[in-house]
């Protein structure tokens, strides 16, 4: 049977947010014991937890997340091992046979610190040459287990989004893909008229294959 691996952080009532962003809230507004049914309410910015950025996030006139073609949300995945790296450079792509429409996952190991105070301070950035190479390869999206591919003034965001490459931030559990062989990524965001949206990202492991390196 197909193996599915969830790469999404749980959204709960104690969500960390990017420094300076408003707090996110998830709380119960009705309960079975009191009201006969359960209901919850969510208050959040778009860039909380595991989420996807559309081009409008940094590009004037760029696509809203609701305008992105469905085909961009799924593709053959490539796991790039950037653990112990201070910067994610294009040399890390050399061992991967990446085709147009594929999705690159950058594994730094930072997801383990998602709820720690220094999560937003110590993550490695994607280099501009890495971003430019992804654009040249024509990938649909790049996902990472960090809060951002870069820092202010956010040049990597602009490189990727000017070519409609989607960015998925705060991915969880990437080390679960080590040794799994080939896989397909499914990352479907909420259909919102906004520059970003929460996303559930799943890796579908191909069956009947030889286990190998990533």
Based on CA atoms alone, the radius of gyration comes out at: 17 Å
Order of helices and strands: EEHEEEEEEHEHEEE
Instruction: Give a count of the beta strands, DSSP E runs of length 2 or more.
Output: 12
Total tally of structural domains: 1
Mean pLDDT: 95
> Main beta sheet: strand number and arrangement?
7 strands, mixed, barrel
> What is the highest CATH level, the class?
Alpha Beta
Structure description:
The chain is globular. The chain has three helices and twelve strands. The protein has a seven-stranded mixed β-barrel with strand order 4-10-9-7-5-11-12. Strands 2-3 form a two-stranded antiparallel ribbon. It is mainly beta and 214 residues long. 35% of the residues are buried. Helices cover 10% and strands 28% of the residues. The protein has a single domain (3-8, 47-205), classed as 3-Layer(bba) Sandwich (Glucose Oxidase, domain 1), CATH 3.50.30.
Features:
3 helices, disordered C terminus, Glucose Oxidase, domain 1, 12 strands, two-stranded antiparallel sheet, 214 residues, 28% strand, seven-stranded mixed β-barrel, mainly beta
Give a concise summary.
With 214 residues, the chain is mainly β.
List the helices and strands and how they pair.
Layout: E1 3-6, E2 25-30, H1 32-35, E3 39-43, E4 51-53, E5 74-81, E6 87-88, E7 103-107, E8 125-126, H2 128-137, E9 141-144, H3 155-161, E10 166-169, E11 183-189, E12 196-205
Parallel strand pairs: 5-7, 6-8, 7-9, 9-10
Antiparallel strand pairs: 1-12, 2-3, 4-10, 4-12, 5-11, 11-12
Helix pairs in contact: 2-3
């Amino acid at each position: 049977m197909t193996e599915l691996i969830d790469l999404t952080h749980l959204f709960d009532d104690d969500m960390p947010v990017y420094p300076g962003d408003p707090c996110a809230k998830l709380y119960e507004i009705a309960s079975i014991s009191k009201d006969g049914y359960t209901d919850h309410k969510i208050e959040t910015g778009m860039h909380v937890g595991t989420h996807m950025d559309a081009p409008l996030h940094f590009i004037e006139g760029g696509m809203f997340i609701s305008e992105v073609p469905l085909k961009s949300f799924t593709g053959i995945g490539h796991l790039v091992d950037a653990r112990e790296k201070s910067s994610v450079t294009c040399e890390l792509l050399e061992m991967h046979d990446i085709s147009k429409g594929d999705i690159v996952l950058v594994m730094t190991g930072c997801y383990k610190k998602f709820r720690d105070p220094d999560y937003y301070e110590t993550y490695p950035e994607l280099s501009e040459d890495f971003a430019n190479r992804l654009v040249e390869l024509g990938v649909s999206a790049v996902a990472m287990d960090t809060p951002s591919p870069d820092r202010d003034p956010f040049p990597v965001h602009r490189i990727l989004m000017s070519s409609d490459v989607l960015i998925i931030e705060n991915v969880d559990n990437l080390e679960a893909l080590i040794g799994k062989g080939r896989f397909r990524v499914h990352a479907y965001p909420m259909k919102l008229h906004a520059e970003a949206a929460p996303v559930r990202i799943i890796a579908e492991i191909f069956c009947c294959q030889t286990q190998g390196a990533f």
